[in-house]
# Entry
Amino acid sequence: MDYILRATAGEGSVRAFVACTRQTVNTAFLTHKTSPVMTAALGRTLTGGALMGCMLKDDQDILTINIKGDGPGGGIIVTANNNVDVKGYCFNNLVDIPLKSNGKLDVSGALGKGSLTVIKDLGLKEPYVGQIPLLSGEIAEDLTYYFAVSEQVPSAVALGVLIDRDYTVKQAGGFVIQVLPDADDRIVSALENKMQGIKSVTSMFEKGMTPEDILQDILGEFNPQILDKINVGFKCGCSRERVENALLSIGKEEIDDIINTDKKATLHCHFCNTDYEFDEECLRKLRASM
Ligand SMILES: [Zn+2]
# Structure
């Protein structure tokens, strides 16, 4: 089972979130049948969304990461709640572009230039919206930039997805380490050194390390304390009832129009790739209930 550790270190001056998300990302791959580069792009964004979902305070809060790019992948949408149910999809699942010169999947090439927007619906009148230009397109660097610019919190973000030969997900996970304003300079420079020594988060998982091991490896000398262990999964909250409500909201005239012309309607949930079919009888029943 995938999970995220929520921890502090350095007497509360550092907060850390470490996630393993292999099953979550593999479910996304099985749901959307993504090509390897898009599995990596979506998987990194899902992992980032799950980590940021853990930072939400209330049960009703919802976080959305919306990436738009001019590359062949087009973009990605991911949402998470604080429970951490996470879901997402890409605009084009089947991008196939050459590997980068270092042999890695070219996520930034698939996304191109564009923007990354974080929307937090905290139950207030207006949602919080923070937007940055997509600078690297590798997602972890972009979220680091987002935290620095939009939330003014210096952060180290690592996200990784390793794809197996059969295109399933072999490893996936990541972490966010944030330094609070009262942190000792000694901690800041030690962390910077530590980050430079890390090859990739998937290489740590490949060595058999757990999120607990990764937390200890990065923050061991600053006495990390685990506060919480939160289960993570790819889960869509859609249902036939919700889709019916969406259909009802389009109005009587529109429904009459569908009944008289197409005689059926199909509503598609992009997040979990599910079609909801409504035949003429269903539509007439819905119409009668209005
Ligand atoms: Zn759905």
